[in-house]
Amino acid sequence: MSFPENAHNESRSVRASRLLRLLNLSIAVLLIALLAAGYWYAWRPLPETSGQISAPISAEAHITRDAQGVPHIQAAIWEDAIFLQGYVMAQDRLWQMDGMRRRAAGELAEIAGPSALESDQEARRMNLRRIAETQERSLKPAERAVLAAFARGINYFIETHRNRLPLEFALLRYDPRPWAVRDSLLAGLEMYRTLSNSWRSELLKQKMLETGERGKVEFLFPVRTGNEPQPGSNAWALAGSRAASGKPILANDPHLEFSIPSPWYLVHLKAPGLDVTGATIVGLPAVIIGHNDRIAWGATNLQFDVQDLYREQAGASVRLEQDAISVKGARTIPITTGVTQQGPLFVSEGGQQYALHWIADEAGGLTFPFLDIDRAHNWNEFRAALEHYGGPGENFVYADTDGNIGYQAAGLLPIRKNCAGDVPVEGAGCEWGGFIPFEQLPRAYNPPAGMIVSANQNPFPEDYAYPVNGNFAAPYRANQIRALLGSREKWKAEEMLAVEKDVYSAFDHFLARQVVTA
Asked: Residue 243 carries which DSSP code?
């Protein structure tokens, strides 16, 4: 028996049509599933920017976001404003905040696996968790109140969003633990470590001294070059006499390690006695750099040396502590840490063990006076708040609506009795004799030149009363900023961007000439 050819074709056409419909249906189901997953895991956890929520605060408050997404918080009391700052920061950056505290605590491998083990081991050897616990116990009541209000806001977000946390938590399959006051201190310590890690330079300089000529090595590690502009990221202030408006101009572009998103978080806080706009570090409340209705301030890293390494000798008194690092997808890794009279037994290099003495581990080395800074109305109130700032050491640049500009170095800086602190020393070979008094730290107020420039250069005068050591920047950037600002009589605020974006490097120019000559 046989069938007509057109019957075969018709049968194949029906099968192809069914297959095509099945394929289209499968694609449609897959797209719906992807869209549903995208909504559930990516869109649904995005910050709520409209509507109303119920929150445990004292009175009605408002949060609006501008075109850049920056939250503007208006509350009845400062405690509510800080609570809501914690809430919105958790909305925007909870996973980044959790990563900051985990990195400092040495707990990244628990969620990231073996790739984070080396980072965790360094944090455990530096004893950052213990430092945070110790500093928490010594907080002043006012500081604790600010950090506690902030933590309550973060935790309220976590509690009310357990089923729609940011995508990263779903991908890594873990839930964040509640935020505590010490977690903000851990976030602060992580930034402290980034800005004051001089111990690597000390080891490098020691190695070079073992095989090289001291004069050449010292040339490569200068404390002073002889042409630093005084007083000493980039920040500057221009007096009203140098501004087209007749009012001072302040500019600041602080440089931190590159990351996405940035460690900076912008916010505007408004409550009775508080109206401040600016940036803080994720995991920390209030505003660290910014302006209120009366004053503005910026900051650059001071880079004064606040770490010393001590060579530990065999038989020295060391208290050993057993710890363990949880590693995702692998066995728990035991780690033995040691604590000496000078500090944690931190690093082993070429069979030699070193203990680390760090200002962050000193009483008052990690304080939080920023709400007082945010509420300051003049130079004297600003300096009074900075007097209680522990570190990391910073150059603060200031301007106010009364026409004043100023500069103040701040932070606890050690007074070394019998060493420079530039290379490791024997166990008792580099004692600290307290800290440089705040009143004797470099400062300036309304200088005759009508400008203040800070670009990480050495701000300490050559005849300074105390020993100075640090990883200060060469003066090229500061000199270039000063030259640009001095190139015209009057400036407008918007013209500061041209100075920020300037890319000329006097050092590269110098080096190129030297190469050509050679």
From this structure: B
Contacts of residues 477-485 at CB distance under 8 Å and 24 or more positions apart, as own/partner, are 477/234, 478/228, 478/229, 478/232, 478/453, 478/454, 479/227, 479/229, 479/506, 480/504, 480/505, 480/506, 481/234, 481/236, 481/453, 481/455, 482/229, 482/451, 482/453, 485/236, 485/238, 485/242, 485/451, 485/453
pLDDT digits (tens, 9 = 90+) for 112-129: 999 999 999 999 999 999
Contact 271, 416 (CB under 8 A): no
Q: What angle do CA 67, 263, 194 make, to 5 degrees?
A: 160
Number of H helices, E strands in the chain: 15, 20
DSSP state string for 170-238: HHHT--PPPP-HHHHHHHHHHHHHHHH--HHHHHHHHHHHHHS-HHHHHHHS-S--S---S---EEEEE
According to the per-residue pLDDT averaged within each range, which of 20-29, 419-428, 474-483 is highest? Answer: 474-483
Pairing label, strands 71-74, 264-271: parallel
Residue type, 86: G
Q: Which of 24, 209, 206, 193 is nearest to 125 (CA)?
A: 193
Under the banding of pLDDT at 50, 70 and 90, the label for residue 232 is very low
Tell me what pLDDT residue 27 has. 80
Closest C-alpha among 165, 193, 169, 172 to residue 105: 193
Cis check: omega of the bond before 231, within 30 degrees of 0: yes
Stated pTM of the model: 0.88
| Beta-carbon count within 10 A of 277 CB | 18
Length of the chain: 518
Residue 326 near residue 110 (C-beta atoms within 8 A): yes
Q: How far is CA 54 from the centre of its chain?
A: 32
Q: pLDDT by residue (tens digit) across 50-108?
A: 789 999 999 999 999 999 999 999 999 999 999 999 999 999 999 999 999 999 999 99
